[in-house]
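TA notes. Do not distribute before section.
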Amino acid sequence: MSKKRRHGSKSEVIRKINRTGGYSYYVTIPKSHIEELGWRKRQKVVVTLEGDQIVIRDWNPGST
């Protein structure tokens, strides 16, 4: 399943980028991360590109 790799002072979970259909890609997020954030199934999130990183944040309808 997932592999853990030590990087600096934190442990990283290594995942593969997968393709779905012809135009989209996906990466699975570990269940433990979702639970730690308090997120739930079908929750809306915002995906942004910040420099060379992809950032996933909870969607807050009041902030748009």
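Switch to the second chain here.
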Amino acid sequence: MRMLTPLALLLALLAPALPAQNFTDLQPSPQQTAWQDLEFGVILHFSTNTFLDREWGDGTASPSVFNPTQFDPGQWMKAIKASGARYVVLVAKHHDGFCLWPTAQTGYSIKASPFQNGKGDIVRDVALAARANGLLFGIYLSPWDRHDPRYQDPAAYDAYYNAELSELAQNYGQLVEFWLDGAGSEGRTYNFPRIIETLRTFQPNTIVFADTGLFEYGDARWAGDESGKIDYENWNVIDRHGFLRWRPVEVDTPLRKFHWFWHPHDEASLKSVDELLDSYENSVGRGGQWMLGVAPDSRGLIPDSDAVRLSELGAAIHARYAHNLAAEHLPTGDNIARALDNEPDTFWSAPPGAHSAILELNLPRPITFDRAVTMEWLPAGQNVLAYRIEAWQHGKWVTLAAAQAIGHKKIDRFPPVTAQRVRLNILSAAHEPRIREFQLYSTR
């Protein structure tokens, strides 16, 4: 008989204490669920590119070009607030290396510009304006830097980057989100553990957005492209080499097609309200976070057409989802009522140990609807594995929509149907399902 080595014996003894991870056993942190509840944010691009008709700066632009003469972040925030967004992320430094705050780490910053005689601080003013308008504030600090010569020396640049991050993390209040964008960094390895240590020292609750490949360092993940849509069943838990993490997805897309920065004579690129609504319903409506790119112009204002479109977007979302027809349900038990009460802190629960369940809604009269909104109670994990939305018609249950994942929020769309009885039929669940909200809407 072969004898176990001391190491093998130790591992064998420890094995029962290290159970295998299961996707449906993982749960989000309180910070992650609070962030997912925000649903809709805006990322702001504003730098030397704005004044040079560029998307990708090469780090050679003179700071002298940066001089918005009507800079008004309050106007930005009023336009963003009208869209329905709940937070903003400012690009404090893009890939060109130009810094929008008076950093002590480089001369290539707003200090060297004519804006406010070199005394301005865009990060400070945008943060203050966001909070004054009830919006949370976050930052994007590009790891890629096409200007600073220290970039050629990884150790020196890591020290530089972390010093900048330390300034931003300490001096601008609580940050809701920190973007780690790897664009342009092919072949480069950053000291990500140190970056996260620096951030967490001063901002323990900030959600870190990163590419899925930065598995260990992010709290949220990229959708994979900038289309503004999730085209797959969206599970919050992802796997990297056998390790599982709760990593909700954020879907970024610009307000103007293919453009993150403002460009002159570019009106044709502005997305229509219908295009934006479709993006919203295929991002927030597929359990994701929607990050819409908005760009101030060379005056330092959100262009009039963009501000109007943001207001139209907010009005359209409100018109479509303000009146929950399910709230008019007939009297029912307390458990079902918790899924119909428009109250995000309550939820319906299937019986303990159940792996399938039905949540039925009875209305006082037939209604016509073409949208169903379903939300899982995610503090207990994402448990629904298959479900159908069904309506009682002509003496039988008719399927209106069917899918696998629900997650934070699922908007199911279908042709208009008139019914008095509607149900969420959960066909399969890993653990007893819990439904935060089940809602019906008419968009006609």
